[in-house]
Amino acid sequence: MEKATGSPSVGGSYPQKNAEILSSQYGINLFLAGLLLTFAWAVHAVGISKSHLLSYLITLMLIQLLWMLWYLGRSCTQRRLIRDKDTHAGARWLKCGITLFAVITLILDSFKIGYYIDFSNCLSATEGIFPVTHAVHTILQVYFLWCHAKDIIQSFKTLERFGVIHSVFTNLLLWTNGVLTESKHQLNEHKERLITLGFGNITIVLDDHAPQCNCTTTTLCSIFSQGIYYLYPFNIEYHILASTMLYVLWKNIGRKVEHHQQHKTPFKFHGITVGMIFGLVVLTSTIAIVVVYLIQIGRSKIKSELALTMFYLHAIFVLALMCTAGIVALLIYRLEDRSLDNSKNPARKLDAELLVGTAAGSWLLSWGSILAIICAQAHPKYTWYNLPYSILVIIEKYIQNLFIIESIHREQEKANDDIKTLRIVTISRGSTLSLTPAYKEIYNGRVAPGSGEVPCLLKGSVLCGRERGGDAKAETSQEKGSVMHSASDVSFYSGNSAANSKRRILKNIAAFLFLCNLSLWIPPAFGCRPEYDNGLEEIVFGFEPWIIVVNLAMPFSIFYRMHSAASLFEVNCKT
């Protein structure tokens, strides 16, 4: 069948579109089945145990391992073939980040293996097989992403679509399992604090999945059981990062790309000292606040209220600084006149959608807190700090999303450093030549030896030259050219000076926001969650409804901060 002019052939595109739809539906059903199994285990459904859930996850990981080995083997046999690559996907800093999270995930798996050995008398075999399978899966997946995250697959496309989408939803299920396990642990700690504070009007039943037998080595068991939950935040981030990278790989299957040179954007510390210093101050103070909060909360009512007040005041100050920085960056963008890059880019599109989608999690919690403050009959003093905190969370993410999305869509400057390419057109002996002398030669009034030409700079990069010789007006022409040259010099340097200042400010803002987002990722990831401990929302909405809202929204809020940090790192490199 012939293909119509300007449109892809029906015979070539229709089967691939069907494959995309079928593979996506396969992945969604795979995920929903695992999600219901996870939910059934969480609510202690009759006939569903943890071994059933782990068996399902082990099966999915083994299938993905087989597919990755097949893909790696096929790639090895075809390594001499030139393959299309998506230069925007799988950035080196992203690979380094996922490698760091993977290493900590391997430590988590080793803790789980040790935990299983100590409680082997009363744990099912799947609880020992799962961490071993997961460790092998992690190692091979990281290697796969390092080598093939940029691939644009053009062969076996239908089969590869199913393999990649299977990998995407396997990682999402592993992420869901990690989130649920970590949330149940946090909820148990919260209930214990409520018991300490004497909340008698709330029915508190600890959801305990602990083994019903004694540990062989008490000290090691305590280390393993406590260490596992401190490592879960890194495991959660690892799986969500892996799923996003694999999703971009899936979207790139069969894609036609324009071949153009991609400018490298290395990260440089030069010029971002101010942003780094302020960001490190925020990071250090946040770590100190989290440590004090975890020590004080639940000790007594007074200490808990002081811990909440301290957290809110610190967060309000940091969020206000972030809002100010974001507004300044957006104002600078309004003063600049640079076009946006609207070319098709799955990685960039996914980044923007994840920023807005995951921000909805914390927006939900913030609006819940605002509504609780408005509707509550009694207001302890510390709860009033929750109002400006919740409002600032909404505004800050709104501004930051605008800044990041516009930054990743702005076209990158073509010139390296701040030197623009100058096109020089000279007329010599009746012929037109196009020359590009070195920057210093042009602005020092020199040209290549023996050219017999004197450059004359005109506005709009149009240059003319006259022959040297016995012309009576040669000296006058040279003087005029020198004057015009000096004026161009001043204009060029003043323009570049202003551009450099704006660029430096933007880089410092991006560096500052990068460290601030890392700082704000730490508290909820490691158990500092005032949404649990505030108490006001639970009184207004009820204990169980509010806890369900928090457990659903908090993982998205945590992921938002890490994803924003990653995006801001890219913005800093690109600016």
UniProtKB/TrEMBL annotation:
**What single Pfam family name could you report for this chain, choosing any that match?**
Otopetrin
Q: Does the keyword Membrane apply?
A: yes
One GO CC term, this protein:
plasma membrane
Biological process, per Gene Ontology: inner ear morphogenesis
Supply one GO molecular-function term: proton channel activity
* Chief location of this protein within or outside the cell: membrane
**Family of this protein:** Belongs to the otopetrin family.
In its UniProt entry, what is this protein called? Answer: OTOP1 protein
Q: What is the lineage of its organism?
A: Eukaryota, Metazoa, Chordata, Craniata, Vertebrata
